[in-house]
Amino acid sequence: MENIFTDAYFMKKALQEAEIAFEKGEIPVGAIVVVDNRVIARTHNLTELLNDVTAHAEMQAITSSANFLGGKYLKDCTLYVTLEPCQMCAGALYWSQITKIVFGARDEHRGFMKMGTQLHPKTIVVGGIMENEASELMKRFFAKKRK
Amino acid sequence: MENIFTDAYFMKKALQEAEIAFEKGEIPVGAIVVVDNRVIARTHNLTELLNDVTAHAEMQAITSSANFLGGKYLKDCTLYVTLEPCQMCAGALYWSQITKIVFGARDEHRGFMKMGTQLHPKTIVVGGIMENEASELMKRFFAKKRK
User: Fold this and answer.
1) B66 is a domain residue
2) pLDDT, tens digit, for every residue of B92-135?
3) Which domain holds residue A101?
4) Which of A60, A65, A132, B113 could potentially form a cystine with A41 if both were Cys, beta carbons 3.0 to 4.6 Å apart?
5) What is the dihedral sign for C-alpha A58, A64, A68, A73?
6) CA distance to partner chain B, nearest, from residue A37 (Å)
7) Could you tell me which chain A residue has the CA closest to the CA of B71?
8) Crossing angle, helix A87-96 and helix B87-96, to 10 degrees?
9) A50, A54, A93: which to substitute to probe chain B, counting the most B Cβ within 10 Å?
10) A85-112 burial by CB neighbour count: b if 16+ within 10 A, else e?
C-alpha cells in the first residue's frame, strides 16, 4: 500500500496555514510540526497582528510543540514550513535540536543558507517541497500589496 | 555635571536580571531595553521554566519593548544584555532594526560574532561592558550545577 504521509502531504497543511496568514494581511508563511505522522502544531506568521518581529510561523511552531511535548527539545519532530527559515528561526531550530526540517520555497536573500546560520549537526534539511505553490502565494501577496 | 547614564549604569540593571535568572536555576542572562535613558523592558532567561528554547532574555526584551512602543521596530532603542547574543537573538535583533546593542561577556562558542550572524546595517554594537561580572556569574552557575 502506498504511504500517503509524504512530505508533500504535510507541506499542503503548512500551505493551508500560509493561506490563513495571507487572508489576515500577513506575509504568507505557514508551518506545522509532525511526530509519527501526527500534526502537533499548526502556525502561521503573525508579525503584523502581534506587532512583533519574533512572531514568525516557525518560532510559534517551536514554542507550541515544546508545550505539547512537555520538553524543550524537538526530537523525532519534523517541521514543515512553506519558506526557507531566516537566521532567527534557524537559530531557534538549532537550540531545539529538531530532527528534520522540510521547507518549500528558497529565500535567496534572507534565508539561513545564504546567511550561513548553523543548524544542529543532527538536523536533516530537505528543501523545495511544493516550492512553486509557496512562492506563488508570496508573489500574489506582494503583488496585492503593491496595488 | 557628569552623566550618570553610562553603559555600565544600565548594564548593572541587566546584571540584576541575570541574578534573578540565577536564583531560578536558569542560565543567568539578563537584558534591559532603554530609550532616552528610560528602561522600557527588563527580562531574564526563562528557557527552563517555560520549557522553551526561544525564551532567551533578548527575545522577551524584543517582544516586551515592541508591546510598550506599540510598533515592532526598535528605533532609538538600546539593548543591554549580559552575554553576547546567539544566532537566534541576533537574527531577531536584525528584524527589529534596533539602534544599539551593548553586551557584557563574549560567548566564544555560540555568540553571533563567531557564528557570523548578520545584524541590521544600522545597528551599533558595543561589547565587553562589565564582562567580568557577567562571566563570573556564568562560571558560578555552571560550577554550582556540576556539584
Assistant:
1) yes
2) 999 999 999 999 999 999 999 999 999 999 999 999 999 999 99
3) 7-139
4) A65
5) positive
6) 23
7) A51
8) 150
9) A54
10) bbbbbbbbbbbbbbbbbbbbbbbeebbb
Nearest-by-CA chain B residue for A95 = B53
Q: What is the pLDDT of residues B29-71, one digit of tens each?
A: 999 999 999 999 999 999 999 999 999 999 999 999 999 999 9
Cα angle B145-A91-B40, degrees, rounded to a multiple of 5: 80
Of A53, A72, A96, nearest to B92 by CB-CB distance is A53
Q: Does A17 reside within a domain?
A: yes
- CATH code where residue A110 lies: 3.40.140.10
**Residues of A near B (CB-CB distance < 8 A)?**
47, 51-54, 59, 62-63, 66-67, 70-73, 86-92, 94-96, 115-118
Residue whose cell numbers read 536533516: A124
Arithmetic mean of pLDDT over chain A: 97
**Cα separations (Å) of A129 from A6, A9, A11, A87, A106?**
10, 10, 7, 20, 10
B83 in a structural domain: yes
Q: Is residue A144 part of a domain?
A: no
Backbone angles phi, psi at B94, to 5 degrees: -55, -50
Q: Give the type of residue at A138.
A: M
Predicted confidence (pLDDT) at residue B1 exceeds the cutoff of 80 = no
Q: Rg (Cα) of chain B, in Å, rounded?
A: 14
**Under 8 Å between Cβ of A142 and A118:** no
H or E element, residue A144: helix A131-146
**Residue A40: helix, strand or coil by DSSP?**
strand
CA B26 to chain centre: 14
